[in-house]
Design goal:
This protein has one helix and nine strands; from the N terminus they run E-E-E-E-E-E-E-E-H-E. Strands 1, 2, 3, 4, 5, 6, 7, 8 and 9 form a nine-stranded antiparallel β-sheet that branches. The protein is mainly beta and about 160 residues long. Strand 2 and strand 3 form a beta hairpin.
């Protein structure tokens, strides 16, 4: 924790380099990721809201596709903000709602937004299961009457 007044605050930063080329896909190959480096910095903080509630906040700075190519196609900069409100009905279970908004700062500004509901249950002291549904939107989807959703199941084993 960089600040004694906020003991649950964390900062994490990473610089990712792609290990192969043509990650951005073509007519034959799907898009996987950017073909240039990405710098990703995250600031996290947990807030307790009484005995059974908590709020998690994450603020990010993301510089994607760092390169020297066409400025309209490289150097995407975004500042995502995520909030997760959690309720703990029992010591082994968690219900949560999440929201995320990520403006993308470029000459033609864009964004994506997400909202979701999830649940976690600790089956054993070392094993947890999680279900999550989320809905995404951005200007492209709105303009084309499209929708994007995720249905996730996760298993976590800790030793």
């Amino acid at each position: 924790a960089p600040n004694e007044k906020w003991p649950n605050m964390s900062i994490q930063s990473a610089l990712w380099f792609p290990l192969t080329d043509q990650l951005e896909g073509s007519a034959e190959v799907p898009w996987l990721d950017w073909s240039s480096p990405t710098w990703f910095t995250q600031v996290f903080n947990d807030f307790s809201i009484g005995g059974d509630w908590a709020f998690f906040l994450e603020v990010d700075v993301v510089w994607e596709d760092i390169g020297l190519g066409n400025p309209d196609e490289t150097n995407r900069f975004s500042t995502p903000v995520t909030g997760i409100l959690s309720y703990f009905p029992t010591p082994k279970s968690t219900l949560y709602a999440l929201t995320n908004f990520a403006p993308i700062w470029k000459p033609t500004a864009d964004y994506y937004a997400q909202a979701g509901l999830g649940a976690k249950y600790q089956l054993h002291r070392n094993f947890e299961i999680e279900l999550l549904y989320s809905y995404f939107t951005n200007q492209f989807l709105i303009d084309n009457q499209g929708r994007a959703s995720t249905f996730n199941i996760g298993f976590r084993y800790s030793n």
